[in-house]
Structure formats: structure tokens, C-alpha cells
Amino acid sequence: MAKNYAGFNDKKALMTDAGYEKLVNEYRNYCKGPHSTEKCLLIISEFLDHFKDHHVSVGVNFDPYKKDSVFISKREIIPISDEKIAELRKSTTFEGIYNFHDTALYKIAVIKDKTPLHDYIGIIIKSSLPGWKRGMIKFEGKLTSDSLAKGVLYIINQMPKQEYFYFGGNFISGDWQREGTTREKLNYKYVPVASRKLSDKTLYIKISNFGPSNAKNIDSVMRVNEPLLKTMPNLVLDLRGNGGGADFAYGPLLPYVYTDPVKEIGVSLWSTEANINGWKKYLDDKDLPDENRKEITGIIQQLEANKGKWVSTSDDELISNYKKLPSPSKIVILIDKGCASTTEQFLLFARQSSKVIFMGQSTSGTLDYSNVVEAPFSCMPYTLRYSSSRSRRIDHNQGIDNTGLKPDHYLSQKDDWIQKSVDLLEH
Question: CA-CA distance, 205 to 222, in Å (whole number)?
């Protein structure tokens, strides 16, 4: 991180040198504790959280069905009595006894256990899978809000992976159901893109992600709806939950939101050997258009020629190569906490349009440090993901990390967001 992460110096300056050293020493001490090998990923994950960059994470780099017998033999066993289990069965808090969605696989006791590394742990009570013993930890998580925890889940081969856990009334995420309660049926179905007429005046388009593999779908839905986009006065563009992807994917949207020249502040890339290798991996994407492949190849050449330096890969510019289209004349873009990264880059463009109104809730705030690259750990089967670029918006006090882009009109979860959009557009 110190050598390659584009945000390291900024983040360290916020912590102060003394604060950073204190943090490093604190986490080094955790590494000396009991069962530190088992908790290694948890310690690393929580250390990385102090950089407050949602682009920083650790991914697995192993076969989830291949077991490490030495690792398993050294796992911690936490004694849990039948009396404690009986007590947990009466709990009305997050604590309790939970079954995995396939009840034959795991039954766990969820216990509040506040330590520097976790607030809750899930302990195996019973499992039909070989190698899982009563008292083994299935997950451990530290609360990031009143109902969301981040930590590690020990998966089927007992190796840990980074995970988020949402605590509902009688369930944890979508996997665990409180014993004795009925599993709720979820009607939600993921749709990459969708469109429909909300009225004679308003068209609705939903885009769930800007991933490279969804780019063709986005282009298709915009082409199919071109006759309506040219004649209908209003558009509702639903980007809720769109966590980003690749900038080229939102290209078909730009002509419709553009009204006036758009000021865009560029980014600089930190050139190191690891970052160059990370950028080379981008070229492995089969969905990458030839134009973008050529652009990335040029960036790699710039980085290789300037190792140990900041490289400006995009200048500050005024974008004026679009014409203002008469229709749609008003556009509501629905945003929420799930909008991040590339989606926020699109929103920075769109908010400079006189046509556009943001409705919903603040976005994620995951853009100042971007262009995620991957580097394998040298000593364990995991991959570090981190940002290789830094937006120069930060130097103009226009950073959005951890605050996000705010809506022009706030909506609560109880509101009918689509109907509220129509009401605003048509009245």
C-alpha cells in the first residue's frame, strides 16, 4: 500500500505520521495474539478499512473446495454450553441460533463479543460437512452501522474471505435464518437493463451496472428507445444500486443529458511496477472495445516510461463535442448509496446539465482514488485490490469520497421513488 496505493500519502497525512505509526503498531500487536494465523485476513481487512476507500479490498485466490488441513488443524475452538444455546434461543436481539439456508449444512450460534477486531461472531453448533467442529467460528464481523457488519466468513473449505453481514429481524444477509422462523420469499429479480413507458410523457430506463459485459445491453436499450427519447419530454434514469464498471459503458447516455460545456478534472496515475502489471491485466478483458484497448496500451507505455512518478492520463478539459438535444427536456436520475465509482463519474458529468435533477439519497463517495488494480499476496492465496489513480479534484477541494453526491430532492425508503419522479416531472 505504501509503495503503490495512489491515496497513501493523502490518507497518511490525514492520520498524521504519529497516528499512522500508532495504527501500524496496534495491528502488528494483533498479529502476535492467539490464533493470529486464522485471523490474519481479518486483521489485514480491518487495517485496510482505516484508509476509508471502498476501492480497497482483499479477494480470494484459491479453490474454495480445496482444503488446507494444516490451517484447519490449528483453528480456534470456542466452548459453547447447552445452557448458553438455550439462552440464545430466547434472544430477540441479533444474538440467537440461526440455520444456513440449506439447514443440513450449518447451524450456528450468533454471540455478541465486542473486541477490537469484531462485535459479533457466529459459532458452529452443528454441521453435516466433514471437518466442521462445534465451536469453530463461521463468521466474525464488526458493525459499520446499526445493522451492517464487515468482517470475514469462513467458507466451505474453512478459509476466510472478506464479507459484509446485514442483520435483519430474523435473518443475517440472505443466508442465515433465525431458528423457528419462516424464511421470507424475496421477489427481487436482478435485471441488467430495463425500460418502459410510465406515461405518455415519461420514459423509464433502469441500468443496474456499467460493467463492460453490460455495455452492449446499455447500447441496445438506448437504440431501441431512440424514437421515444426523441419525442417524449421526460426521462427517469434509475441508477439505484449501480456500483460502477467502465466509463465507456455509459457513453450512449451522454448525448441525452448534455446541455452545456462540461468541466472535467482529470486524474493522475502513480507509476510503479505493480501498478503497471495491474493495468496490463485490464487487457485480458474480452469485452473491452478495441478503442479502449488501444487507450490502455498507450497508458501502460506512459507508465513504463515514468516509473516512480505521477502520470497525467487525462487532462483537465471542457467537453463541448455534443449538441443539446430538445428531447428529453427534463431528466430525473434516481441515486442512492449503491451508486459508486464509474457511476459517480457519470453523475459528475450529468449534474452540470440544466436538464438533470438528482432524486433519492447521497451516493457512495467512491471515486477520488480509482482505477482499481490487483496484486497477489506473496505469502498467502489472496489478492489485494487498490486504487492506482488520484483525481485532481482533490486539489480543488472537490473530492467526494465518503460524502458522495447529494440529491436535489431527498427521498426516504418509504417513498415510491418512481412515482415521486413522475410527479415532479409532470406537474
Answer: 9
